[in-house]
Known about the structure:
globular; mainly beta; five-stranded antiparallel beta sheet; four-stranded antiparallel beta sheet; DUF4352 domain-containing protein
Amino acid sequence: xxxxxxxxxxxxxxxxxxxxxxxxxxxxxxxxxxxxxxxxxxxxxxxxxxxxxxxxxxxxxxxxxxxxxxxxxxxxxxxxxxxxxxxxxxxxxxxxxxxxxxxxxxxxxxxxxxxxxxxxx
Length: 121
């Protein structure tokens, strides 16, 4: 989706399912991860501090899900950054079984980007 000089696109959806058991740590570490690409079409430097919020919505029930307190904005590519492109990564608790599509709401630099009907199967 494009708003003024910014383009936000979905790179990938990650579903990790695993449970760990160590001597001091035990628990379900499963999550749903989203990776977005932010690009300034005028090739101006991305302001990483301009991130405001992200949440997802089940397209069937309209239930909203908010990320766990972890997100990362990194240079793209990492070895020789373009500075006008960045990767945004956020983790969510696993969604209930049976959810097939979601809407993603991402606010950056005062602009709301909505990616609709994203297939997460």
